Amino acid sequence: MADLKLGKLPDRTPSKMTITVSADLNQALKDYAALYRQTYGESETVAELIPFMLAGFLEGDRAFAKARKESLPAAGMSEKSRRMSGSDSE
């Protein structure tokens, strides 16, 4: 197998979600979309903006990132390294 610098791409299958928001949040999202249009000169729907807003929120939440990192298994470890570190705990 070739040793490519670029690793295998992650799953990029989009997931559709339906949510219900309050009237106040709905208006705030519409206001944000209007300000986005005014700022960048491009019109984007609220539905197009929300995934990027959520991603930005999650990326900026340090407590979430730390908790997520601590609760996941050592993703960067090779199978051999996992077996070796696991044998110490037996």
From TrEMBL:
Supply the Pfam families for this chain.
Answer: DUF2274
Q: Where do the segments described as Disordered lie?
A: 69-90
Family matches, as InterPro entries = DUF2274 (IPR018733)
Q: What is this protein called?
A: DUF2274 domain-containing protein
